[in-house]
């Protein structure tokens, strides 16, 4: 999915001062991530196989960055490594479901609903704290439910296939939430690239197994390697890398607003490359869900 493991979607901790380069990194990371669904559509491997290559192709680069990050440091505890490997398993489920959904629904819907994990995390936090939501949290929940209902209703009007795609992307958002929980816990002690390396090591074999069980073609065909290579570089290396770099420089509200560039860019790509048309109800649903994501990132833990 599209929010890095180092981000806390409901945190509002003080941030280091930002400049133009940090803003460029933030927006550039979101643009790179928004191009991911386009590469998945262009790849002729199969959606889950494309997710496998997304993790595997950039693993050497991420592992090298992790080696530089951890030189001279003691080896982390085994339980912490197992925690990150569990996060990688959920990340594999997230990518598998999301990539399948990308092929069955509009690119804007896939990008927006695939980022629903932050809303799920907010609900999880409220349950853990055993309290009712505050005013802004209740507004976020209401906006998310209304927006998702509009998008799912529109998909059902078009065909059952597009509704199935939206449901796959919503399931991916659920898996992404359970990926973030252990990954954020591990991030307290491990470096960002160290976490991403372990995530890739755990997720890539599972994705390969899923692809083989589904009978997907794993190796690229006539389209060649460039779609899966573009997916790996844009989503996993550039997108995640720029977001990891920029997150500490901005408050969550700015991060949430920047996130809204992703479905907008994905929708534009869908219109240009695949003749996907957004009607007024589609736009209204996307605005409601996007507003909910912004409200979530503006909240503070514990209310």
Detailed description of the structure:
With 303 residues, the chain is an all-alpha fold. 75% of the residues lie in helices and 0% in strands. The protein contains 14 helices and no strands. It has helices at residues 20-34, 36-42, 47-56, 59-70, 78-102, 107-114, 117-129, 135-158, 160-187, 192-213, 226-246, 252-259, 261-274, 280-298. Helix 3 (47-56) packs across helix 5 (78-102), helix 6 (107-114) packs parallel to helix 9 (160-187) and helix 6 (107-114) runs antiparallel to helix 13 (261-274). The protein is globular.
Features:
303 residues, mainly alpha, 75% helix, 0% strand, globular
Q: Using only CA atoms, what is the Rg?
A: 18 Å
Could you state the order of secondary-structure elements as H and E?
Answer: HHHHHHHHHHHHHH
Terminal CA distance: 26 Å
Biggest sheet record: none
Strand content: under 5%
Q: What are the low-pLDDT stretches, counting only 5+ consecutive residues below 50?
A: 6-15
Structural class: mainly alpha
Give the oligomer, counting copies of the same chain as homo and different chains as hetero. Answer: single chain
What is the tally of beta strands? Answer: 0
Number of helices: 14
Mean pLDDT figure: 77
């Amino acid at each position: 999915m599209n929010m890095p493991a180092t981000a806390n979607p409901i945190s509002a901790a003080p941030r280091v001062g930002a400049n133009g380069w940090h803003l460029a990194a933030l927006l550039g990371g979101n643009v790179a991530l928004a191009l991911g669904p386009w590469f998945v559509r262009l790849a002729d491997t199969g959606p889950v196989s494309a997710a496998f290559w997304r993790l595997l192709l950039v693993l050497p680069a991420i592992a090298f960055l992790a080696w530089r990050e951890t030189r001279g440091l003691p080896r982390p505890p085994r339980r912490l490594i197992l925690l990150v490997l569990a996060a990688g398993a959920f990340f594999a489920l997230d990518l598998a479901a999301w990539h399948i959904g990308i092929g069955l629904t509009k690119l804007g819907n896939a990008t927006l609903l695939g980022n629903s994990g932050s809303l799920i995390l907010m609900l999880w936090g409220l349950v853990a704290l055993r309290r009712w939501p505050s005013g802004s949290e209740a507004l976020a929940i209401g906006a998310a439910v209304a927006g998702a209902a509009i998008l799912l209703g529109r998909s059902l009007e078009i065909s059952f296939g597009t509704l199935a795609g939206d449901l796959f992307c919503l399931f991916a958002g659920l898996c992404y939430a359970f990926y973030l929980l252990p990954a954020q816990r591990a991030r307290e002690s491990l470096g960002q690239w160290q976490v991403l390396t372990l995530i890739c090591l755990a997720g890539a074999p599972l994705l390969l197994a899923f692809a083989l069980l589904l009978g997907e073609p794993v190796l690229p065909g006539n389209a060649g390697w460039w779609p899966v290579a573009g997916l790996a570089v844009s989503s996993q290396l550039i997108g995640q890398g720029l977001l990891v770099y920029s997150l500490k420089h901005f408050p969550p509200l700015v991060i949430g607003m920047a996130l809204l560039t992703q479905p907008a860019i994905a929708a534009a790509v869908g219109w240009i490359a695949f003749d996907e048309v957004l009607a007024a109800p589609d736009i209204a649903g996307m605005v409601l869900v996007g507003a909910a994501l912004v409200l979530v990132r503006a909240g503070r833990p514990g209310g």
